[in-house]
Design goal:
Chain lengths: 484, 289
């Protein structure tokens, strides 16, 4: 009874002492500022916000660990053990209080960080995605785990360098091995961008909780191998192994969602499809509010297609990690992020470009079919009339920009990896600025979309000035094989 | 006499110090001074009595509790105030926070009562003005008083103070004496010291330890009396071979312990003389009274 009260009072004192340190708060605010900065130009996706904030709690938990460790070590300072040994409350009471205090502080700050980030994201416009409560709990458990690890280290390795070295080793393991081999077994969350769906949240929560209990039992074991402690340790160890295996079993593949048969991986959630103005949009559950945003890219293109061709409008399909996703003819992929504010135009330009490339047949030429899977390899669309048409269509939805197709920047081509030069861009801008272009294009639609139709031919069909053909393609160096 | 500390056949090897033949000690309420040179085993004895060190052999009963039992040790700790020889400090704590922390560990679970007690003991040692000062900013003397303050928490029935006046200036020492003399009126205080004048002025009882053994137990007057007829004042320095100890006093005369030099006249023995003669001889334990 008395010992319980002492533990409680000591816990309150330790929470106050650890909480008065500016470092964990600075870590929370710095991490929050970083998260906010990184997502500022992204439309709010609460599922991503929760997971990424959970990953960011590692910084806060590491700070608490670095505080809890010296708090434990203060019992080891010269003269202190002698003084404390003559007091009625034994060392295990202090360990217990520090374990609870550090877990409360680490876990509490994790909740604060995740909660604050979610609130900020909620205030940034219509939010999509669903917060996985289990995932958040796993983040809290991971933060508490790292925090109590500082105490356990202090009890077993009474050295001020133990905690920094442990964190360094953990960071090294994370960076150079475990992040690839066993990312779900680490006390830091796999970011949403790497795995949005099929996350093994529940087994991971069980695993982290087992690890937390194990570390607590280990810390207490320093004060003698009592039955309760040894029993807790054994149970936690068994639970840890079972939960660890469960995590490994439930974990989805990390680096490719393309299966040998070209099928989409089974852990993807069902897509919900809706048709708006003749265009079908398929989205993940909870992403309904982004359909109008995608519609701003797709609807102007559909409206500018010759009516008989509108049935050929591709379906807009949401795909997590769309850059790795299997490309299906007749589908245009859109990811789980979308620009906000000025960055929305960038997202819209990309989607509009992809749709325009699909309806003009350029996208099909920019794909390569290998191993049962289509890959976007890109192609050079310079000199072709359909490239101008594709740009004209894309320009209905978003401002046009030069293609930057060099090296790693291939993907920045708004036309889905189809390269184009300044001549094509100038003709498209000319068409966009002119009245009556739509009718003219519709009249020559099939000729214009023929890969053999050159710019010179298009110039005559569309009554475009010949001078543009002499323009050097300064600054644009499309790569790849010619399309078609 | 009520016996509050009763040690029998105590034997402890601690570093190079060994209580060879077993140590017997019985103390009652009041202030007892523990004298002895460095390495005599004073601190080892105090640690055993303060429950921070278990003896290799022997039996200790403190306030009626048997220290070989875990539960009894906890009971003693609840009634004990202990100032170790080299107390440890949490340098980043304030004086108040440090004593408050110890108070929690002393099972003061009621926050208001605990804070009142912390304020009381800080006032007792004259550190009220430094309550919110970080320990690292306190002087050595202030830190010593802070360590004393934590020992006073809870008005303990037994106070064990290992060299408590180290680092204190004369004024602080006087305050310390006043405080301990008040405390000693109603409880058992055992203080280890090298200051024989502290013993003479404060203690009702004195124990002298030499080489791990109790060589004297009695009152300060009895310790002084062991030097009867062996303390001299002389105008000339003695022959060193015939004398235990001598020194030149401020008056220019020589105070000689041991055999009298020619022309010396007897002097009134003091506690210090008795202790020095004991420390210098290789005699069997001297029993007073």
């Amino acid at each position: 009874m008395k010992r319980g009260s002492v533990t409680w009072q000591l816990t309150l004192a330790e929470v106050g002492r650890l909480g008065r340190s500016p470092y964990p708060w600075a870590a929370v605010f710095a991490t929050l500022a970083l998260l906010t900065g990184l997502t500022w130009d992204q439309a709010p996706n609460l599922a991503a916000a929760a997971v990424n904030a959970e990953a960011a709690t590692f910084v806060v938990a590491a700070t608490v660990m670095l505080l809890a460790n010296p708090a434990t070590l203060r019992d080891q300072r010269p003269g202190v053990p002698e003084m404390l040994a003559a007091l009625p409350s034994p060392a295990e009471v202090r360990t217990r209080a520090l374990l609870v205090a550090s877990a409360v502080l680490g876990g509490g700050l994790a909740v604060l960080l995740i909660g604050a980030h979610l609130l900020i994201r909620l205030g940034q416009g219509p939010a999509v995605g669903r917060v996985d409560g289990v995932e958040v709990l796993a983040g809290v458990a991971a933060a508490a785990l790292l925090s109590v690890a500082g105490v356990a280290l202090g009890r077993w390795v009474p050295s001020p360098v133990a905690a920094p070295v442990a964190l360094f080793l953990l960071g090294t393991v994370m960076l150079f091995g475990a992040a690839v081999v066993a990312p779900w077994h680490l006390p830091v969350a796999v970011p949403y961008e790497f795995q949005a769906f099929g996350r093994p949240s529940l087994p991971r929560l069980a695993f982290l909780t087992a690890l937390l209990v194990l570390v607590v039992a280990l810390a207490m074991l320093r004060h003698g191998a009592r039955l309760v402690r040894v029993g807790s340790l054994a149970v936690a160890a068994a639970w840890l192994v079972a939960a660890g295996l469960s995590v490994a079993h439930a974990a989805p593949p990390m680096w490719s969602r393309v299966e040998p048969g070209g099928e989409r991986a089974g852990y993807e959630p069902d897509l919900h499809c809706t048709e708006r103005a003749g265009v079908t949009y398929c989205h993940y559950p909870g992403f309904d509010d982004w359909v109008p945003l995608w519609e701003r890219a797709a609807a102007p293109i559909a409206a500018n297609l010759p009516p008989p061709e509108r049935a050929g409008m591709p379906t807009v399909v949401q795909q997590h990690r769309e850059w790795l996703a299997r490309v299906v003819p007749g589908e245009v992929l859109v990811g789980t992020s979308w620009g906000r504010g000025e960055a929305e135009l960038v997202s819209r330009t990309r989607l509009a470009g992809s749709i325009a490339a699909e309806v003009t047949g350029l996208a099909a030429d920019a794909r390569e079919f290998a191993g049962g899977v289509s890959w976007r390899t890109g192609c050079d669309g310079r000199g072709q009339a359909r490239t101008v048409v594709a740009l004209w269509l894309a320009g209905q939805a978003a401002p046009l920009a030069p293609a930057t197709m060099d090296g790693p920047e291939r993907e920045t081509s708004p036309l889905s990896n189809v390269g184009y030069g300044d001549v094509e861009l100038r003709y498209a801008e000319e068409l966009l600025a002119r009245e009556g272009t739509q009718q003219l294009i519709w009249e020559h639609w099939h000729d214009l979309l023929d890969p053999r139709t050159t710019l010179a031919a298009a110039q005559e069909m569309l009554d475009l000035p010949a001078g543009h053909l002499d323009v050097e393609s300064a600054g644009s160096r499309p790569g790849g094989q010619p399309c078609g | 006499m009520e016996v509050t500390i009763d040690a029998r056949g105590l034997r402890k090897r601690y570093g190079s110090t060994v209580a060879r033949d077993g140590l017997d000690l019985a103390l009652g309420p009041g202030i007892t001074g523990l004298l002895g040179p460095n390495g005599a085993g004073k601190t080892t004895l105090l640690r055993c009595l303060a429950t921070t060190l278990a003896p290799d052999q022997g039996e200790i009963r403190v306030l009626g509790w048997d220290l070989s039992r875990s539960g009894d040790r906890t009971e003693v700790r609840r009634r004990l105030g202990y100032l170790p020889q080299s107390p440890g400090y949490y340098r980043s704590f304030t004086a108040f926070a440090l004593v408050d922390y110890v108070a929690v560990l002393k099972e003061f679970t009621d926050r208001r009562r605990r804070h009142a007690e912390v304020s009381r003991v800080l006032a007792e040692v004259g550190l009220t003005g430094q309550a919110n000062t970080k320990v690292r900013k306190l002087s050595g003397g202030m830190r010593q008083r802070l360590a004393l303050a934590q020992a006073l928490l809870g008005d303990p029935r037994l106070l064990i103070l290992d060299e408590p006046t180290v680092g204190l200036d004369p004024e602080q020492r006087l305050r310390f004496r006043a405080l301990v003399s008040t405390l000693g009126a109603t409880r058992t205080v055992l203080l280890s010291t090298h200051q024989t004048d502290d013993v003479a002025d404060l203690c009702e009882y004195v124990v002298v330890m030499l080489a791990g053994r109790v060589r004297f137990q009695g009152t300060p007057a009895e310790l002084a009396a062991t030097a009867d007829g062996r303390v001299w004042l002389s105008d000339r320095p003695p022959v060193p071979e015939t004398t235990e100890v001598f020194w030149r006093t401020a008056a220019g005369r020589y105070r000689v312990l041991g055999e009298p030099p020619p022309g010396a006249e007897p002097a009134e023995p003091r506690v210090e003389d008795g202790y020095l003669l004991l420390a210098g001889q290789r005699a069997e334990p001297v029993a007073a009274g």
